[in-house]
Amino acid sequence: MKQITSSQNTYIKGLLKLQEKSRERKKLGLFIIEGLREINLALKANYTFKTVLFCSDLIQKTAVDTLFESSTEVIEISKEVYEKLAYRNSTEGIIAVANAKSFSLKEISFSNKNPLILIAESLEKPGNVGALLRTADAANVDAVIIANPKSDLYNSNIIRSSVGCVFTNQIAVGTSEEIITFLKENKISIYAATLQNSNKYHLEDYKKPSAIVVGTEATGLSEIWRDKATQNINIPMQGKIDSMNVSVAAAIVIFEAKRQREFK
Q: Does the global pTM surpass 0.85?
């Protein structure tokens, strides 16, 4: 079994580049997963793995062997190398290099004839994307679609802040135009969260196929969503400010839709 003890090792430097640069991830079709929980969720989502690195000071090799097929390369790394690679110190001493999946709209399928979808447009902060994916998982929505993405979904910060929910949701990305065409073709009503020309969110009927669309707190949704929506909706604000965090707003509307559907 291969061992790496120096953080100056060429392969380790390559992994750091993979971890930090979206361009590198897209070029190689690979990304980094850190931690047992996240790796287990990726395995359940049928991700395949190229390499697994483990620190024997923190995890036994037998525990690693039970997770992966024999074809997956396993490398033992020193604690120094692990600490160089790890984003946080509570990930049980295991890091994996996984093969990326396509997030094409063409691959979205609905087992549910009455789908509920969460759509987010142009989110920039990885923490907001991660929180949104956690909300989607909690509500067990049928798909999450990111319009005009500003962050690579395999960004380590997104994987971390989503607590692995990037692997538990059915996800696609596309332009706003492509997504609206997809929704229209599938006869899915669009409810766009915006202040302009909108009704209170809780007065709408989400029991039919529905897409809840949210934008950034700073700029809101673009005009195309406001114009093409079945109905624009708003959350009545009763304090001194007129907006809230996008993942919080999404959760409020999504769980109203789930309530109307009797959480089925």
A: yes
